[in-house]
Amino acid sequence: MNNPTPAADPGSAPRETILVVDDDDSVRRGLRWVLVMDGYQVVAARHGREAIQIFQEHPCDLALLDMNMPLLNGWGTIAGLRSLNGRLPAIIITARPDQRNIAREAGVELMEKPVDLPLLLKRIGALLSKPQGDAPALSRLRHSLYEAH
Question: I need a surface site. Which of 7, 12, 14, 92 has the fewest CB within 10 A?
Answer without folding.
Answer: 12
